[in-house]
Amino acid sequence: MKKIVLASQSPYRKKLLERLGVSFVTTHPLIDEDQFKGEVNDPTELVTLLAKKKAESVKNLFHDHLIIGSDQIVCLENKILGKPHTKDKALEQLKSMTGKTHSLLTAVTLINENEPYHYLNETKLTMKTLSEQFLQEYIERDKPLDCAGSYKIERAGISLFDHIECTDFTAITGLPLIELSKYLQKHNFMNS
Q1: Domains in the chain: ranges and CATH
Q2: What is the DSSP secondary structure assignment for residue 3, as one 8-state letter?
Q3: Closest CA to 120 of 178, 177, 182, 47
Q4: CA separation for the pair 148, 111 (Å, rounded)
Q5: Considering only CA atoms, which of 152, 159, 37 is closest in space to residue 90?
Q6: Active-site residue numbers?
Q7: Run of H or E including 117
């Protein structure tokens, strides 16, 4: 029987996929993301390419299974904001977004019997105008150092925002489940 393989070590994506009640395994994608980040500057092209490369990187190991690759990019005024890794970088990112609208792009590639299927979700988030002290307190509370854009919307990060426009709230945490569940139902990986 075919398995579902999530080509990601992200605990956020794993938790999201578990919500659908399907059986799956996770594996580490076999790519160096930094290699592509230096070659592609357009945020939409980059996020789509990374999702595709993650799925393709494990295709030979799981050739008879459905492979899910996903990537996410935060984009402010056509500038990509990655994972901050430090409190100073997180503060810098959040200060640059305060009072502005940015995009959160989430790309997914599904490979099933060598037939790729790609989709892209864009969420527009408008941040409140916030003080540096508020942002510092937020960083201490949520510790969003492993999150692109320096916020965890599923936790206290929701308090940073004035307005969110999206078609699938799960895309914000890393894996748009509405489109994914439609695909899984259509291809008999879950009941409809």
Answers
A1: 4-186 (3.90.950.10)
A2: -
A3: 47
A4: 25
A5: 152
A6: 71
A7: strand 115-127
